[in-house]
Every structure is written in structure tokens, then in C-alpha cells.
Amino acid sequence: MAYSHVRLRKFNTAKTYPEQKLDNDLSMSVRAGNFVFLRGQVGQALDGTNVGTGDAAAQTEQAMKNVKQLLEEQGAELADICKIVIYLTDPRYREAVYKVVGKWLKGVYPVSTGLVIQALARPEWVVEVDVFAVIPDRRLKSLPEPAEHLQWKETADKKAPPLSSKKSKAKRKKTK
Fold first, then answer.
1. What residue ranges of the chain have pLDDT lower than 50?
2. Among residues 158, 171, 107, 125, which one has the least CA distance to residue 4?
3. Which residues pair with 111 in a beta bridge?
């Protein structure tokens, strides 16, 4: 069965932020066709362990490590990154953060936006990296299925059962 979206590493914010009254179903990455969208990455390993508390360079290193792994799980590469957005909680972190990002994206040439914001979702996080990538068409057809334990596929593109009532048929005609 063909799926239009591949959503990997699903989670619920009730577990991620237990001190907050949240209940949102999210994914760490979504591939829609050849577009790959990642959740913003911070100084937290994919297992949930915080890394580099208060250290912008260490947090950026972890974020970029996550970006690489999440892209690869979707069949993408760092070289496929088209846009990167970097959020900083202090403008003095800019040099340290951009040195780390520059090391990871040497020769990629994405467009980039940098923002200084008041805070991130947790006080110990000082940088967040948001990435958008496009897998080239030549590689898209040969992508393997993601590992089963990472998968959660959107099934919205399955054909809906036909509407059988006269009322439903009339409603369908009206919307055409």
C-alpha cells in the first residue's frame, strides 16, 4: 500500500512535558513525497537525555547529530537540507552555535534564518535547530522502508468507504 506521509518516532507531549497539561500527538519527522520535515532539535538526545545544559555549542552538536539521524531514518542526507532555522535564547551564543552548524553543513549551502527568542520549551535549552530537506527524485524511488519500530504511517490516503444513503449522495452532489 502506498502512503503519502511517513511519520517516524511518534510521541505525545503529555509524556514529553509531564509538568504541563498538554496532549498533542506529534512526530519527530515526517516525509511527504520527497519533502522531509523535522521537529526542532535541541540539546536532548533522541532517547530524551539532556545534553550540554547551559552550553550552546554542546547543545547544537547534539541537535545536529539528531538532525543527521532523523534525516537518514527518512532516507535523506544532510546534503538534502534546503532551509535551516536557528533559534537562540541569547545573541551571545550565535558564534558558538554557527561554528557547530557550519561544521555539519560544510558545502551544503542551505538558506538560513536565525532568530533570538525569549525562551524555548524548557529553561535548560538555549538553542533549537529546525530543518527542512528535499530528497532528490533520483533517490526517492529506491528508498527502503524505514525500520518498523520507527514507523507510524498516515492512512488518510486510503479510499473511504462509499456513502450509501440517499442523503449522503445528495450531499456529495451538492458539494461538486
1. 1, 153-176
2. 158
3. 83
| DSSP assignment string, 112-176 | EEEEE-S--SSTT--EEEEEEEE--HHHHTTPPPPPGGGEEE--TTSPPPPP-SHHHHHHHHHH-
Closest CA to 32 of 113, 167, 121, 132: 132
DSSP H/E element including 60 = helix 56-73
Domain holding 104: CATH number?
A: 3.30.1330.40
Residues in the chain: 176
How many domains would you assign to the chain? 1
pTM value is: 0.78
Domain range for 158 is: 5-175
